[in-house]
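Holo prediction — zinc ion.
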Amino acid sequence: MIIDVHRHLVAKDTVQGHYIRGAQKSFVMMYNKSHKTNVSPRDFTDNVIRPLIDPHADNIVEEMDAAGVDKTVIFAVDYGLLFGEAPIGAFDQNKLYSEAAKRHENRLIPFIAIDPRRKGAVKHCEQAYHEWGMKGFKLHAGVGYMPDDPCCYWVYEKAAEWGIPIMAHTGGSPNSVPPLRWECSRPAYFATAAARFPEVKFIFAHCGDFAWWQEAVQAAAWLPNVYVDLSLWQKPYVKWPKARFYQWLRDIIDIAGADKIMFATDAPYPNLMCPLKEWVKAFTDPQTDFRFTKEEMDMILGGTAMKVLGLEG
Ligand SMILES: [Zn+2]
């Protein structure tokens, strides 16, 4: 079983203009660096992003089939209180995700993206969970709250009550005006929240990213309810000498355990740099002298996620 625990849909009117204008500068810089091109932000939008528009996730499922990925967790990001509401508001975006998941039953697993400070959020989440079948929460604290702030507690309490996990963005954020607050996405703050709510499973997205992976892995090693996902690590995989990447992977397995680590992409952007098929192969057929057992790789590819998502028979 191969499960990608972190992916987004590309759909029109789901991101507010303020965010797009700033974020594009970051994304186009990263794209140009890895492709050795000099594409303008405008061309990036028109030629790279627009063709990815796929609100019903039909192309996603096709891509999964070609790469041998069985299931994918999908979710939006709730940026609304920081940047202003996108034409399709946060609640409607969650609905969109739940509908895509219904269309591709047994393949896509939708999480609820929510800013805990939103008016009406509790009621909305109750509907999303009970009526729309959404199976987890996605928090992006960079929009301006601390993960261990009491304003978040109701989300953690609901996660405990419903037995569903929290996907927490940990790591960097792109350019934007107003800025996303980097410090709110530090793994340490989510670790404090995870320690306070030991019955809730927390997935630290991007394994803390380049600067904070040690903090994320440290939390996963200390706290039974903390897990990490490997989305965004396609870049080091592609760019670094393979021995360096696999040394890193060996290290984090030795520190936290393969039963705390999950395969993920954060598609669409990272898949432009490293096709899904290739990223899967990095684990099914690792080209390295470092030794990984089949059990470890199977755990990372899907075993850990089955446990966290409650998919075990
Ligand atoms: Zn993401």
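READOUT: The first strand starts at residue 3 and ends at 7.
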